[in-house]
Amino acid sequence: MSALHIKKGSTRHSAYNLRPNFSDVQERHTIAVLVENEPGVLARVIGLFSGRGYNIESLTVAEVDHAGHLSRITIVTTGTPQVIVQIKAQLGRIVSVHDVHDLTVEGASVERELAMLKVVASGEKRVEALRLADIFRASVVDSTLTSFVFEITGAPDKIDAFADLMRPLGLSEVARTGVAALMRGD
Questions:
Q1: Which residue from 35, 41, 59, 159 puts its CA 20 to 30 A from 141's CA?
Q2: For 3-43, how does the pLDDT look when each residue is reduced to its tens digit (9 = 90+)?
Q3: What is the spatial distance between Cα 159 and Cα 112, in angstroms, rounded to a whole number?
Q4: Domain region containing 156
């Protein structure tokens, strides 16, 4: 069989197929970026993602060192392994960036998120909403005769599960902080 006559479904590859065999599997990664706390830094980081068509699933930013004027940006994104490597390399080239850590690959980490959910319900649905909140350890932070606002913290999957259960009971609004994450151990 010559290179010009390869049967369909054959495992042989032509020398003319020069496209590299990159993985198409999308992976979720949590990336922590330590940056100078100055105007425009967040815009440059976000611009890196939007300019290349990368999606940000979650983004949190806060100053973590007042004396050193440093902020921490925690980004949850998805992409192929090659895209994740490219994102980290490009983040590291931004002048105001001090450190880039991929918490997903550097070891065990802890992720938490805070959410507030408003549930408008009456009667049995109201009782069921309170029962589920107790199971999920959500706190009631506001209550009226027709609604509750619950506060819940935990892994994003826990918050998703709580919201899914509250939807049929009258979930009307959700506010989420985004993921905050730290490496475990030393």
A1: 59
A2: 444 344 444 444 454 554 556 889 999 999 999 999 999 99
A3: 10
A4: 109-183
Task: Map residue 29 onto helix, strand or coil.
Answer: strand
Task: State the Cα torsion 34-39-45-49 to the nearest 10°.
Answer: 160
User: From the CA atom positions of the chain, what is the Rg in Å?
Assistant: 23
CA 126 to chain centre: 31
Alpha-helix residue ranges (DSSP H) falling in 68-182: 81-92, 124-135, 156-166
Q: How far is CA 32 from the centre of its chain?
A: 11
Edge-to-edge strand ranges of the sheet holding 27-36:
56-65, 70-79, 27-36, 97-102
* Same domain flag for 67 and 124: no
- Same domain for 175 and 135, yes or no, is yes
Burial class (CB in 10 A: 0-12, 13-18, 19+), 36: middle
d(CA 145, CA 124): 13
Q: How many CA atoms lie within 13 A of 102 on its CB side?
A: 18
Average pLDDT over residues 82-100: 94
> How far, in Å, CA of 118 to CA of 133, rounded?
12
Give the tokens for residue 140. Answer: 């009631």
Q: Please, what is the Cα angle at 158 between 185 and 114, to 5 degrees?
A: 75
